[in-house]
Write a structure and sequence with these properties.
- The complex is a heterodimer of chains A (about 450) and B (about 425).
- With about 450 residues, chain A is an alpha/beta fold.
- Chain A has a domain of about 150 residues: Nucleotidyltransferase, domain 5 (2-Layer Sandwich).
- Helix content of chain A is about 55%, strand content about 10%.
- A five-stranded mixed beta sheet of chain A has the order 7-6-5-8-9. In chain A, strands 3-2-1-4 form a four-stranded mixed beta sheet.
- In chain A, strand 1 and strand 2 form a beta hairpin.
- In chain A, helix 2 runs antiparallel to helix 3 and helix 2 packs across helix 6.
- Chain B has a domain of about 180 residues.
- Chain B is built from 18 helices and ten strands.
- In chain B, strand 5 and strand 6 form a beta hairpin.
- The termini of chain B are far apart.
- The relative contact order of chain B is 0.13.
- Classes of the chains: A alpha/beta (about 450), B alpha/beta (about 425).
- The interface between A and B is medium-sized, with 29 and 37 residues.
């Protein structure tokens, strides 16, 4: 089957969207960019393909009477078990790689103890994995590094203490190993992992009758569908690193404009706040870019600003929005510089202002920066679509809504829960168009002598 | 406008000639202590070179020194020196590069120290910073300073009163002081002769600039343009050298046109012409070659630019230096410089250029430390967009401060702009 893939290589995360001939989105994938765009592109693409398999399963299962009303439960069970398989595979890789690093002359006196401690640690991590992927369990992140890293730290510290081993040596091999594991292209053998996931589901949920031919056949059929990479388009800051010819690369401005148009065809103004840049884009009724502006020379007011603030406050970046939403008043933060904002923040806190009020002020500061970029691009025309990672932050959205209303009156504001995929969606649409010979936006190689 | 010293750059004969002319001028300046020649420092816009030559002065242009130092990658440390001296980050970087150059011993590109000027000739043509700049230089050199106050074209036209006002200053302030400093008596016929040469060179320059109207332009009127305007904006307007240079340049471009060739870039012949742009604003000098490459490697050629008009507008409304009315025509020249025109006029000029040169749109290169240019540029962009229906875009760099050239950002925006033009074309064709 022909697949058209858009990959958006952002500064923080890399996103992929896979669509078919009919422009139906079949799969999406996301991973952290980890300053290795080749790997990030490969992983996000593989994730999009995995998610496509699930879409195909879904389509196949809808025909099966046995699963009436149970398709979603069945698929989420299958996905959980698949993710567990994936996690265990990477965990094993991390274990082997860590032990490999322990085989270093500088550890020669401790090697045996280290390997024992590592084996013990990973055995516990493996045990801990099963409940983490159990029905109803919540994981704090979907990225391997985030889950395994936290657990490794706490577990290995305890084990090192018990074994009277210097904890630093374990941390040392872990630090080296995680970088290697993270930057390794994703493991193949997807069907093996699907098969093992199905086996697990058999024991976990006998009510699905997974062993039944009526169910296993469509699974095998869906697994057998070849996903052909017909055309891949890359966008985002990492685009030049992609092993693509130039006509497979599109500007993120065009991709975001088209992606927003596809999500909300009445969109005329798009605001995208990503990790290190903020874009305001004006599009016409066809999703064609009319004008755009981006932040210049400074990334204050972008997603990273929030990351910095989160570090300053010793919080997770995803905890900022919910806390800021509890504010009863908005502290005035004047700074347009990320680092100075950190100083202002400490100053306000020292003066006794509440954390949530200060945070609300910081969110307002970000949106004020964005408002200036919007006005430079030509203002807001109904409808307005907000995309990028920061669109998932409710406190930022609240401030944005207020400021849009104050400046432009009643405007429809669209925010898609999957808005982080907007650029990749536009990229996939460009891939389909390019494959159809409509090279809108494509640039051919030319030989300047 | 021509001080690129990279060795592997492809150069035409006219460029080599220009290089020789400029080197000659620096030699003239630096050998002044031995030859006894007097030297005057002045600015590019409103540069009254013919009059300066009437008094046998050598002409030194601090803006050209600053941009030359930027192209030789020396402006960064000069700017930090000026900042150490107390000039803030937001001050015009030409000024800081010049002050930093002085702090480093005022060494000319030929490696010899520049003598102190005998006179500062300030033509005020729309840039308030020029005033402050020469105030600093006057403090430093303590030499005679004259200011030619050129009225701003606020109403978009030159009136008789305005012209008379400038001529009066030339007669009563500028010429007497030049006579006093140089010891040379003013001879208006000598001025007429120089102006004849100016007009001749200007005719050829205009022909060259207008050659970009051809689809498959033989020139780039921004990056290439800065070389073409070098002699006429600098110390050579009114000289036979300039007449020869523009004659040679015109023949070269005629030849390129006949052969159907595009512009020459530092990397060689440019490939296919895919985008035709009009550019507003000065170029970035610190990364000039890299900046140009971002255009030519994507097939973008600049067919007209406002920067090629900062030292005099010759193509747009047909101004020529007039030997019959030398002082009046010098006055009109000063008032007509691009920087001395108001925003509505600049906007109309840019919109007209987009139409006349069949451009795909207008790009603004907004200069961080030049408010004189940058104020109102977004407004101009919207207006040009509305009048021409062509897409416009905005990038930001600086003149000579290397800290403000961010290649990834600039390239990102340029690529987006080119693709936006392509997308627009496709949608209009559909």
């Amino acid at each position: 089957m022909k697949c058209y893939i858009g990959i958006d290589l952002g500064s923080t995360t890399t996103k992929a969207i896979l669509m078919d001939d009919n422009m139906d989105v079949l799969g999406q994938g996301i991973t952290n960019s980890r300053s290795n765009y080749d790997t990030a592109a490969a992983i996000s693409k593989q994730e999009a393909m995995i998610s496509t398999r699930f879409t195909l399963f879904h389509r196949a299962f809808e025909q099966i009477s046995q699963l009436d009303g149970k398709v979603d439960d069945f698929l989420s069970g299958l996905e959980r078990n698949f993710r567990l398989e994936q996690y265990l595979e990477q965990l094993k890789d991390l274990q082997d790689t860590s032990i490999g690093f322990a085989d270093n002359p500088r550890f020669k006196d401790q090697k045996k103890a280290m390997v024992e401690a590592l084996d013990a640690t990973f055995a516990e991590l493996e045990q801990a994995a099963v409940p983490m992927f159990a029905p109803g369990a919540e994981r704090k992140s979907d990225f391997f590094r985030d889950i395994a890293g936290g657990q490794f730290m706490s577990t290995s510290e305890r084990i090192a203490k018990e074994a009277d081993l210097n904890y630093d040596v374990l941390l040392n091999v872990y630090d080296k190993a995680i970088i290697e594991v993270e930057n390794r292209p994703p493991g193949g053998d997807l069907s093996g992992k699907f098969t093992r996931a199905l086996d697990k589901l058999v024991t976990e949920a006998p009510e699905f009758n997974v062993g039944d031919a009526e169910i296993s056949k469509p699974i095998q059929d869906a697994l057998g569908v070849e996903l052909e990479e017909t055309f891949v388009v890359g966008t985002g800051y990492g685009r030049v690193r992609l092993p693509f010819p130039k006509d497979h690369i599109r500007s993120e401005i065009l991709c975001h404009g088209l992606g927003a148009h596809m999500m909300y065809p009445e969109t005329r103004t798009v605001l995208d706040i990503g990790g290190q840049d903020t874009k305001a884009i004006q599009v016409d009724g066809e999703g064609i870019v009319e004008n755009f502006q981006m932040n210049d020379r400074c990334a204050a007011g972008c997603g990273r600003y929030l990351g910095y603030i989160a570090d300053e406050m010793n919080m997770g970046v995803h905890e900022l929005g919910p806390l800021a939403s509890k504010a009863t008043k908005v502290a005035k933060i004047n700074s347009t510089c990320t680092v100075f904002a950190g100083a202002e923040l400490r100053d306000r806190l020292a003066l006794g202002e509440k954390r949530e009020d200060v945070l609300a002020g910081l969110h307002r500061a970000i949106i004020l920066r964005a408002m200036s970029i919007i006005s430079r691009s030509g203002g807001v025309t109904d409808q307005f679509t907000f995309t990028g990672g920061v669109a998932n932050n409710e406190a930022a959205v609240t401030e944005l809504k207020k400021l849009i209303f104050e400046n432009y009156g009643e405007v429809t504001i669209n925010i898609d829960p999957d808005s982080i995929y907007t650029g990749a969606l536009g990229g996939a649409a460009f891939a389909l168009r390019a494959a159809e010979g409509d090279v809108t936006g494509a640039e051919e190689e030319q030989g300047a002598a | 406008m021509c001080a690129d010293v990279s060795t592997d750059v492809i150069k035409d004969d006219s460029m080599l000639l220009q290089k020789k002319m400029i080197a000659g001028n620096y030699d003239k300046i630096t050998s002044a202590p031995e030859t006894g020649q007097k030297m005057v420092s002045t600015f590019v816009p409103g540069n009254i070179n013919e009059l300066i030559m009437c008094f046998d002065f050598a002409n030194n242009l601090p803006e050209i020194n600053a941009l030359g130092n930027a192209m030789r990658k020396q402006s960064g440390s000069m700017i930090s020196d000026a900042e150490k001296m107390g000039h803030s980050e937001d001050v015009c970087t030409y000024v800081k590069a010049d002050l930093g150059m002085m702090a480093k011993g005022n060494i000319a590109p030929n490696g010899k120290p520049m003598p102190n000027p005998d006179m500062l000739m300030l033509s005020y043509t729309g840039c308030y910073t020029f005033l402050k700049w020469f105030e600093l230089l006057r403090e430093q050199y303590k030499c005679p300073t004259v200011m030619l106050h050129v009225p701003y074209e606020g109403d978009g036209k030159i009136t008789k009163n305005m012209r008379d006002y400038v001529v009066k200053q030339l007669k009563e302030d500028v010429i007497p002081m030049m006579e006093e400093v140089s010891g040379v008596k003013f001879d208006i016929d000598r001025l007429r002769e120089y102006m004849k040469a100016s007009a001749k060179a200007e005719d050829d320059l205009v022909w060259v600039l207008k050659s970009a109207k051809n689809i498959r332009s033989p020139i780039d009127a921004y990056f290439g343009g800065v070389y073409y305007i070098g002699p006429i904006f600098g110390a050579f307007r009114g000289t036979e050298d300039a007449v020869d240079y523009y004659r040679m340049l015109r023949v070269e471009i005629e030849d390129r046109l006949a052969k159907g060739l595009g512009p020459v870039t530092p990397e060689g012949e440019m490939g296919e012409e895919k985008y035709r742009l009009v550019v507003e604003g000065p170029p970035n000098w610190t990364n000039f070659r890299e900046f140009w490459k971002m255009f030519h490697e994507d097939g973008a050629v600049v067919v007209a630019s406002s920067y090629s008009k900062v030292g005099g507008v010759y193509d747009y409304d047909g101004f020529r230096h007039d030997p019959q009315n030398p002082l009046e025509s010098l006055a009109e020249y000063c008032m007509g410089c691009y920087t001395n025109r108001n925003l509505p006029d600049r906007t109309t000029m840019m919109a007209d250029l987009v139409e006349e040169y069949q451009a795909d749109g207008m790009l603004v290169n907004s200069i961080k430390s030049c408010n004189s240019f940058a104020a109102g540029e977004l407004l101009m962009l919207r207006e040009v967009e509305a009048r021409t229906g062509k897409p416009c875009a905005f990038i930001e760099t600086d003149l000579v401060d290397p800290r403000y050239f961010s290649p990834a950002n600039v390239k990102n925006r340029l690529e987006s702009y080119f693709q936006m033009i392509e997308q627009k074309r496709q949608s209009q064709a559909a």
